[in-house]
Design a protein that fits this description.
This protein has 439 residues and is mostly helical. The protein contains 18 helices and 11 strands. The strands form 5 sheets. A 3-stranded antiparallel β-sheet has the order 3-4-7. Helix 5 links the parallel strand 8 and strand 9. Helix 4 packs across helix 5 and helix 14 crosses helix 16. The radius of gyration is 30 Å and the shape is elongated. It binds one RNA strand of 78 nucleotides through strand 6, strand 7, helix 4, strand 11 and helix 9.
Length: 439
RNA sequence: CUCCCGUUCGUCUAGCUCGGUCCAGGACACUGGGUUUUCAUCCCAGCAACAGGGGUUCAAAUCCCCUACGGGAGGCCA
C-alpha cells in the first residue's frame, strides 16, 4: 500500500473562502487519518491577483485553522516547486510529450488536446461510479503561451504523486477531461472524491465570496475560536454517525473517511457555528480565555496594557458564562475597568417605575459600608437580612444597585459582581448615583 | 439547450450498503414551562421531515423506473 498523498491547490485571490477552507480541511483530515502527506500547491498563474498579500491571507487562514502542510511554500519538499508560476518548464516538457504522441495540435494560436471520445469512468469515493464522455477537444495552452487549469492541474498531480484528489463537486463534470489527459500521459488515475458544495445561507446557489459570513478571515477577526470553526466545517458534509457534533479534532481524524462523506450540498448556518463557538469558549481554561480576551479588550480601549491579571480573570470568570462570543465582551464588562459608564435610561425608568429605589439604595449603602468581608456570601447574607427587616423582596435592592454600579440592568451574578468590583468602587458608585439622582 | 450530481424536520444530519427493530433518532433555530436578582446558562416539554407518482415485495426512508425540484459543468476562468 503506497502512501496517501493529497493536495490543496488554491489560487491566491486575496481572501480565504469558507468553501475552500472546507476543501482544504477535508484533504488535511484524510491525510492525517491515513498518515499520509498533505501538500499545499499554489495555483498562481493569474498574475493580476497573485500578490504577496493574497498569499499571506491564504497561509494565515490555513495556519489559523491548524491545517499544517507537509510539502509546499515555506516548508519545501521533494516535489517542488509548489508555485505553478515556477513550473513552466515542467508544463513545456509535458506538452512535448503530448505532441510526440500526436495528442496536441495548434489552432488559432492556441494548443488543443485531442480527446478520444471514449466514455470516461470515474470511480468516485463519494459518488460511486460516474460516467461521462468528453465531446470536444479543449484548449491546454492559450495563444499567449500560458497553460490552462485542466492541464496544469493534471500535470502537477501526476508529477507530485497525488494519490487522492479531494475537491468540490463543481469539478466533477470536468473530471473526464482530466482522466483523458492522465491516460494520455500513461499515468495512473488517482482516487477521486468529489465533496458536496456549500450553499449560501439564504437564497439559491453556492456560497460565494460576496456572501455574508463566507470568509475565514472574518471569523478570525471576530475572535471566533479556530477549533470551533474547524469543528463546524467538519460537520458540513460529514458526521461521526453517532449523534455527536462537538468532538476533538484527534477523534475526527480517527473517524474521518472518504466513504463517510455526504453526497448532497450543505447549507451554511452561522447560528450553528455560533452555538459551537460558544460551547468551545466555555470549555476553555480561564487562563486561556483571559489570554484570548486581553488583546480584544485592549484594542477596544477597555483595559490598559498592564491590567492586573487576577482582576481581569475575576471579571472574565463571572462574565464568560453570560456572553456568547468574545466580540460581545467589551460591551458587556467595560464598567469593571472604568468609572466613566453611562446610566441606561430605559433600564432606569423601568426600575424607578415602582417601589422606592432610592430608599433601598440608602439602606443597602449603610449596610455594606460597615462590612469588613466584602465576599459574595456575606453580601448575600447582608441583603437577605435587609429584606427581612424592611419586608421587601431582594430584587428591590438588587436592581437599583446593579444600575448604580454598572449603569445597566443586565450583567453577571449580582453578588459576584459586587465582590469583584470591590467595596470601595461599589460604595463610591452608589453615592455618586444617589447624588446625581436625588434632585 | 446538453451532460453530470443530488433530494429525510426551516437548517446540519442519523438511518439507506445487508428492506421489517423507524407511525423515522440527534443537534441548531423556534415556541412553551421550570430554576434564577437581571441577562445568559441549565433542565423539561413542544413544533417539525422520508419531494411526488408508479412498480418489486408479505413488508420500502431503505431496491427499480418516471416526473418535479435543487445544484454543478459545458471558457483561450480556476
Amino acid at each position: 500500500m503506497s502512501q496517501v498523498r493529497v493536495r490543496f491547490a488554491p489560487s491566491p485571490t486575496g481572501f480565504f473562502h469558507i468553501g475552500s477552507a472546507r476543501t482544504a480541511l477535508f484533504n488535511w483530515l484524510y491525510a492525517r487519518h491515513a498518515e499520509g502527506v498533505f501538500i499545499l500547491r499554489i495555483e498562481d498563474t493569474d498574475k493580476e491577483r497573485n500578490t504577496e498579500e493574497a498569499k499571506q491571507i491564504l497561509f494565515q487562514g490555513m495556519k489559523w485553522l491548524g491545517l499544517n502542510w507537509d510539502e509546499g511554500p515555506e516548508v519545501g519538499g521533494d516535489n517542488g516547486p509548489y508555485y505553478q508560476s515556477e513550473r513552466t518548464e515542467i508544463y513545456r516538457s509535458h506538452l512535448e510529450q503530448l505532441q510526440k504522441i500526436d495528442r496536441a495540435y495548434e489552432k488559432d494560436g492556441a494548443i488543443y488536446f485531442k480527446i478520444t471520445g471514449e466514455p470516461q469512468v470515474i470511480e468516485d469515493a463519494v459518488r460511486g461510479r460516474v460516467e461521462r464522455t468528453e465531446e470536444k477537444d479543449f484548449v491546454i495552452f492559450r495563444s499567449d503561451g500560458s497553460p490552462v487549469f485542466h492541464f496544469v492541474n493534471v500535470v502537477d498531480d501526476i508529477t507530485m504523486g497525488i494519490t487522492h484528489v479531494i475537491r468540490g463537486e463543481d469539478h466533477l463534470s470536468n473530471t473526464s477531461k482530466h482522466t483523458e489527459l492522465i491516460k494520455a500521459f500513461r499515468a495512473e488515475l488517482p482516487q477521486y472524491a468529489h465533496i458536496p458544495l456549500l450553499l449560501k445561507q439564504q437564497g439559491p446557489g453556492k456560497m460565494s465570496k460576496r456572501d455574508q459570513g463566507s470568509l475565514i478571515e472574518e471569523y478570525e477577526r471576530r475572535y471566533f475560536l479556530a477549533d470551533a470553526v474547524r469543528n463546524y466545517l467538519c460537520l458540513l458534509g460529514w458526521s461521526p454517525k453517532d449523534d455527536r457534533e462537538i468532538l476533538p479534532i484527534d477523534e475526527i481524524i480517527q473517524l474521518f473517511d472518504l466513504t463517510g462523506i455526504n453526497k448532497n450540498n450543505a447549507r451554511f448556518d452561522e447560528k450553528k457555528l455560533s452555538f459551537i463557538n460558544t460551547d468551545y469558549l466555555r470549555a476553555l481554561p480561564l487562563e486561556t480565555f483571559s489570554w484570548l480576551c486581553r488583546p480584544v479588550l485592549n484594542e477596544s480601549k477597555i483595559i490598559p496594557e498592564d491590567v492586573d491579571e487576577d482582576f481581569l480573570q475575576d471579571v472574565l470568570r463571572i462574565c464568560r458564562e453570560k456572553v456568547r462570543s468574545i466580540e460581545e465582551l467589551p460591551g458587556y464588562c467595560a464598567y469593571f475597568f472604568t468609572d466613566e459608564y453611562s446610566i441606561n435610561e430605559k433600564a432606569k425608568q423601568k426600575i424607578f417605575k415602582k417601589g422606592d429605589p432610592l430608599a433601598r439604595l440608602n439602606e443597602i449603602l449603610s449596610s455594606i459600608e460597615t462590612l469588613d468581608d466584602f465576599s459574595e456570601e456575606i453580601l448575600e447574607k447582608t441583603v437577605g437580612s435587609l429584606t427581612v427587616t424592611q419586608n421587601v423582596s431582594s430584587g428591590e435592592y438588587i436592581h437599583p444597585t446593579r444600575l448604580a454600579v454598572s449603569g445597566t440592568n443586565v450583567g453577571p451574578g449580582f453578588y459576584a459582581m459586587l465582590q469583584v468590583l470591590g467595596k470601595e468602587k461599589v460604595l463610591c458608585r452608589i453615592k455618586k448615583f444617589l447624588a446625581e439622582t436625588e434632585t
